[in-house]
Design a protein that fits this description.
The complex is a heterotrimer of chains A (540), B (250) and C (320).
Chain A lengths: L2 E2 L10 H4 E3 L8 E9 L3 H17 L5 E5 L13 E2 L2 H6 L12 E2 L2 E7 L4 E4 L11 E2 L2 H14 L3 E4 L3 E7 L2 E7 L2 E3 L5 E6 L3 E9 L6 H9 L10 E10 L6 E7 L8 E9 L2 E9 L9 H8 L6 H4 L3 E11 L11 E2 L2 E3 L1 H4 L10 H21 L4 H8 L2 H8 L3 H4 L4 H13 L19 E2 L13 H7 L12 E2 L6 H10 L5 E4 L2 E4 L9 H5 L2 E2 L14
Parallel strand pairs in A: 2-11, 3-4, 3-15, 4-10, 7-17, 15-22
Antiparallel strand pairs in A: 1-23, 5-9, 6-9, 7-8, 11-12, 12-15, 13-14, 16-19, 16-20, 17-18, 18-19, 21-22, 24-27, 25-26
Chain B lengths: L1 E6 L1 E3 L21 E3 L1 H17 L3 E8 L3 H11 L3 E6 L7 H12 L6 E5 L10 H9 L3 E11 L2 E8 L2 E8 L2 E5 L11 H7 L4 E5 L7 E7 L8 E5 L4 H11 L4
Parallel strand pairs in B: 1-4, 1-6, 4-5, 5-11, 6-10, 7-10
Antiparallel strand pairs in B: 2-3, 7-8, 8-9
Helix pairs in contact in B: 2-5, 3-4
Chain C lengths: L3 E4 L2 E2 L2 E2 L2 H10 L5 E7 L16 E6 L8 H15 L3 E5 L2 H13 L4 E5 L1 E5 L2 E8 L4 E7 L4 E5 L14 E6 L8 E6 L13 E5 L10 H9 L4 E5 L1 H5 L20 E5 L16 E6 L6 H4 L2 E4 L2 H16 L1
Parallel strand pairs in C: 1-4, 1-6, 4-5, 5-12, 6-11, 7-11, 14-15, 14-16, 16-17, 17-18
Antiparallel strand pairs in C: 2-3, 8-9, 9-10
Helix pairs in contact in C: 2-3, 4-7
The chains are: A alpha+beta (540), B alpha/beta (250), C alpha/beta (320).
Chain lengths: 540, 250, 320
């Protein structure tokens, strides 16, 4: 087999397992809330905070619950990040920029096109000008937002992944959480916890990238989008460096092959605390492309090697990013009893590499729509109206084809993207059609020699803080009898070394998983496992 | 049953240790704090004993900074009834001082059982439980990995080198919990919500200086580069010698 | 006064070897060392204590002292300590020592400087070193109490022969009956040593070729006398060779043995990622370029089926 299409080997989304009639047996506790938010990321927490404030101002008591699958706030949060502060200002009008959980304002920046041994400085594209923005750690942002939410009386439930949507007719009434303490065969043990049902008048799905329940709802309610959602995989490291860095850096080109879309970022949280990462579109063609390995290669480039010399990698992580932009947004992000927020809806602008402020603003708009819905029965579609009337839609519309143009390769894509930038998105216009990543054929090429001094995937997983219980049942669903080429593809696709192609077929080291969701996009399906599993990011 | 459980807020076991600028303490920036894992066994045991008895109260006592309220809330979420924070910004380096403050609080009431974790995973002192027991004049058994209670009589098992020590003791008593005593429960959703409403008293305290003074906190000696000792069975003698004399693990 | 009181341990009337470490550690502080042990009668092996630096060896006897009597021992030792004006009282941080030392210390109104890896006179004071944060840091502490109460981490103070008089004496002591009594010491049930708790982990990988060959590792584990567990790499567990409970963590659990011996595990850094906090890692593999040797402290290249049995022999000799 020389070429294959990953979608052929992907199990379908198990809708019958994800959509559950309310009242179905199997739950331990049942909790009633006014509003349930799934995911304590920037979208979910901004929604909770705005909602709590609206209620307080109105003198109403609202029982708001936020479910988070990580053991503690922020532990599954990962981003570059350079943050546009406007959503913070909207959410906290009484605070100053210096009160927000940012590390440093962006002062200097540089964009380079890299070759194997050198670099060309490029003029910073307008979409990437970051003056006025701030370097931050998303973990720190989430923890800060969490404190604000708790001060306002929001209930945060960490360690509780939402596993199924509870529905009544065509409406969403809540979620059922994943059980904890199952043995390797999936059977409950005495110390474990059964699933819990959380029922609410409105459920906001803020699960982040490739949200499982968001996917399930869209499929169940047949909510279309112009293009399927497409994704990139980002692998990131946090370094304590001996040399200081005083600017943010973005690069294009090497070490990416020309038929892969992506680039790198290097952001100093402090002069000697540097976040760096490589982001690659999952529509790459080569079976052997391994984003983690490319990142290791990237660190050898003369631009980075001296910076990192003598330093220490203190954290590692990975996460996918929804890159489809405007045309991949679901036609509506609101429905009967439910809203889709943040990355789960696809509010990310690739050319500027921004998603956090869109996530937070979507949370704010959602909160306002929810509040009106609870107060006076107004339709939740008000959320869509508010987003569509805001800069969120305007920004995404302007860059709607820029990422998509790169499906034609680096140079042609770059040319088209450049033209779009100059014309504010008007030319080339129209709508670029995209295939889902899993529909893109993959082919094998010559194997690369191993890289000396690279961080191995397992060392990397260790540095993600992953201490998932080894006896936990596997949460990944693969088709049986995966051919060797496909197994090899998976082993390169996954940055955490979950998949190995052995003589006995595909081996799945499920506890390694850091919930980046690349597998759900291209390979075996991801399902939630017991709360607290996965990475424990601290300053990612 | 009236049970007191003494808990400690400690850095998570996966913490990457960075030494603070004063060269005497841990740099707490970005450190995740949790309930001392051995204390979880103590809390769980207290809850199980109270449930078995059918009535009573589990009170959680913690000596620590203001942020330790969160640690107490975790115990309340597991099912404890009330908490007391003996608030001090710095935990004294001398465990006797900690024991004195905790014993002072416990003295105010009468308990059937006072439970501690066997040791704290930050300072590895292994002593506050028995020190408190001595101050209160109560019987004490440490490192309990199995416990049977029948009325006012208890039998505990504790791991010692090469065996298990079976110990008889009367109640009321102070016990320190070891791994294997039970399987701590995950806090339930309802427990997390209920915890917010349970009483948590904060009492500022002033630790004395005690008789142990921290001179420095230092990184461990650099891990030396590994070496291949030799080839084949013939190298074993040298390996064992190195493990004994150099590495000191045999 | 500069006399150090060194507290020895006996079990079933036989002196435990850890006692030599206590005397060795006590002797580091200079001054006279008075060794003391609580027992019901004469203790076998007492005569050897002088060789490690004890000027005097006192046996405190009481019929209730045959087995460890926490309250009785504590009272007897505290009484002796109060009489003597000692500079320091040194215990082993053994299972018993960890229980006994705080009781004695509390009676003297002080805490224990516990689990020490080093101690010295410094500037007229007593300065000690102890590992903290699971060995990720060392704490240097000045002990200001008189007497100082100290406990020494086992396996650190390698006994050094420093012959002294070791003049033996027996003193009957009277203490109130204890409320806490040791009924018996029973054997630990075989095979229940949790891999996560073991001081020594011997882990086997695919290099063992087949499940039956794990016998070789089990023999080695037995030679360690109850302190060692046999672990398995995930590959081997997935292949069904070993039980799930034996699997050694690969995703960074809080496992921290003193000694981790990786047998027939080749590039398996993935099976050791969580083992990084092991004190010492030994690798045995026939491939001298195996990546495992890069992270091992000591490596032996060769046929594990020859090396491991030889190692078993040597360990048996040590523990015999």
């Amino acid at each position: 087999m020389a070429e294959f299409i990953p979608a052929r080997y992907q199990p379908a989304l198990p809708l019958d397992k994800l959509i559950l009639q309310d009242g179905a047996p199997g739950a331990g506790d049942r909790m009633d809330l006014d509003v349930l938010i799934v995911g304590a990321g920037p979208a979910g927490l901004a929604c909770a905070i705005e909602l709590a404030r609206l209620a307080k101002a109105d003198g109403t008591e609202l029982n708001i619950g936020v479910l988070e699958k990580a053991e503690a706030l922020g532990e599954h949060a990962l981003s570059g990040a350079v943050v546009n502060p406007r959503a913070f200002r909207e959410l906290f009008p009484d605070l100053k920029d210096s009160d927000f959980p940012f590390r440093a304002p962006v002062r200097k920046e540089a964009v380079y096109l890299l070759t194997a041994g050198g670099k060309w400085r490029l003029p910073t594209p307008p979409s990437m000008r970051n003056h006025g923005n701030h370097i931050a750690s998303l973990c720190e942002i989430v923890r800060w937002l969490g404190t604000k939410a708790e001060e306002l009386g929001v209930n945060l439930f960490t360690g509780f992944p939402a596993a199924q949507l509870l529905v009544r007719d065509s409406g969403v009434v809540g979620v059922r959480t994943a059980p904890a303490g199952l043995d390797r065969a999936g059977k409950p043990t005495p110390g474990g916890t059964p699933p819990n049902d959380l029922v609410a008048k409105v459920t906001a799905l803020a699960e982040g990238t490739r949200g499982l329940l968001a996917q399930a709802w869209c499929q169940w309610q047949k909510v279309p989008s112009e293009n399927p959602q497409i994704f990139a995989l980002g692998v990131k490291e946090l370094w304590e460096t001996k040399q200081p860095l005083d600017r943010i850096i973005h690069t294009l080109g090497w070490p990416l092959p020309t038929d892969a879309f992506g680039g790198s970022f290097v952001y100093p949280l402090e002069p000697n605390l540097v976040a760096l990462g490589l982001v690659v579109g999952l529509d790459y063609r080569d079976v052997g492309l391994d984003v983690h390995v490319l990142l290791q290669r990237f660190k050898q480039h003369p631009l980075l090697k001296p910076l990192l010399a003598g330093g220490e990698m203190v954290e590692w992580g990975a996460k996918t990013i929804p890159e489809g932009g405007f045309y991949s947004l679901p036609e509506r992000r609101s429905g009967n009893g439910v809203l889709l927020l943040g990355d789960a809806a696809g509010f990310v602008d690739v050319p500027s590499l921004k998603g956090i402020h869109y996530a937070m603003h979507s949370g704010i708009f959602a909160a306002r729509a929810i509040f009106q819905n609870l107060k006076s029965g107004a339709s939740l579609a008000e959320y869509d109206r508010q987003v569509d009337a805001s800069y969120v839609r305007a920004d995404l519309y302007r860059t709607r084809n820029m990422r998509l143009a790169f499906r034609d390769g680096f140079y042609l894509g770059g040319l088209q993207a450049g033209l779009m930038t100059l014309t504010g998105g008007r030319f080339p216009g129209g709508k670029y059609r995209m295939h889902a990543d899993a529909e893109v054929p993959r082919r094998s090429s010559a194997a690369e020699p191993p890289l000396a001094g690279a961080v191995s995937k397992v060392d990397a997983v260790f540095k993600s803080g992953n201490s998932t219980r080894d006896t936990i049942p596997s949460h990944l669903v693969a088709k049986p009898d995966v051919p060797e080429l496909v197994a090899r593809f998976y082993s390169h696709m996954c940055p955490a070394g979950v998949y190995e192609a052995t003589e006995n077929g595909l081996r799945i080291n499920a506890p390694n998983c850091v919930d980046c969701k690349a597998t759900d996009v291209l390979g075996p399906r991801w399902t939630p496992r017991e709360g607290g599993s996965g990475p424990k990011y601290k300053r990612m | 049953m009236q049970i007191a459980v003494c808990i400690k807020r400690v850095p998570d076991s996966e913490t990457r240790v960075k030494i603070a600028a004063d060269a005497k303490s841990l740099d707490e920036a970005g450190v995740k704090f949790v309930m001392n894992p051995y204390d979880e066994f103590a809390v769980e045991e207290a809850l199980q004993r109270k449930e078995k008895a059918g009535s009573g109260e589990v009170a959680v006592i913690c000596l620590g900074p203001a942020a330790a309220q969160e640690t107490i809330r975790t115990a309340l979420a597991m099912g404890a009834d009330r908490g007391v924070l003996l608030q001090a910004d710095k935990i004294p380096a001398d465990p006797f001082e900690a024991a004195r403050l905790i014993a002072g609080e416990l003295q105010a009431a009468s308990w059937d059982l006072i439970l501690f974790g066997r040791m704290a995973i930050d300072d590895y002192n292994h002593q506050v439980g028995p020190l408190v027991a001595e101050l209160l004049g109560m019987p004490c058994v440490t490192a309990v990995s199995h416990l049977d209670i029948d009325g006012a009589k208890g039998v505990a098992e504790r791991e010692i080198e090469g065996g298990i020590e079976v110990v008889d003791f009367p109640l009321p008593a102070v016990l320190t919990a070891d791994k294997g005593l039970n399987e701590p429960r995950y806090p339930a959703l309802k427990g997390i919500m209920a915890a917010k409403k349970k009483p948590l008293e904060v009492k500022p305290v002033q630790p004395g200086t005690g008789s142990l003074e921290v001179v420095a906190l230092m990184p461990p000696p650099e891990r030396k580069e590994g070496k291949i000792v030799g080839e084949g069975a013939g190298a074993v003698g040298e390996l064992v010698r190195l493990l004994r004399e150099e590495a000191k693990v045999l | 006064m500069t006399t150090i009181l060194a507290v020895l341990e006996q079990r079933d009337g036989v002196l435990r070897k850890i006692s030599h470490e206590v005397v060795t550690g006590a002797a580091r502080l200079g001054g006279a060392v008075e060794a003391v042990v609580c027992a019901a009668g004469p203790v076998q092996g007492i005569d050897r204590v002088g060789a490690y630096g004890a000027d005097q060896v006192i046996t405190l006897t009481n019929p209730a002292f045959a087995k460890y009597a926490p309250e009785g021992y504590a009272q007897a030792l505290a009484d002796r300590a109060k009489q003597g004006g000692y500079r320091a009282i040194v215990f082993s941080a053994s299972a018993t020592g960890k229980d006994l030392a705080p009781r004695v210390a509390a009676k003297l109104g002080v805490g224990v400087a516990a689990d020490l890896t080093d101690l010295a006179n410094d500037d007229g004071g007593l300065v000690v070193t102890r590992p903290v944060y699971a060995g990720k840091a060392l704490l240097k502490v000045k002990v200001m109490s008189q007497p100082a109460v100290l406990s020494l981490r086992p396996n650190v103070f390698t006994p050094v022969e420093r012959p002294k008089a070791g003049a033996a004496d027996t003193i009957a002591v009277h203490v109130p009956a204890g409320r806490v009594t040791v009924r018996e010491i029973k054997a630990a049930p075989a095979g229940t040593l949790d891999v996560a708790e073991a001081q020594v982990i011997i882990s086997g990988g695919r290099g063992l070729k087949e499940p039956a060959n794990f016998k070789v590792l089990e023999e080695l584990a037995r030679a360690f006398g109850g302190q060692a567990a046999v672990g398995a790499s995930r590959a081997v567990v997935d292949a069904g060779w070993r039980a799930h409970a034996d699997q050694v963590g690969q995703t960074g659990k809080t496992v921290s043995p003193s000694l981790y011996i990786a047998v027939g595990i080749s590039g398996a850094i993935q099976h050791l990622a969580g083992m990084r906090t092991s004190k010492v890692i030994v690798a045995i593999n026939k491939d001298k370029d195996a990546p495992i040797f890069k992270i091992a402290d000591y490596g032996v290249v060769g046929d594990l089926f020859e090396i491991v049995p030889r190692l078993t022999e040597e360990i048996r000799k040590l523990h015999g």
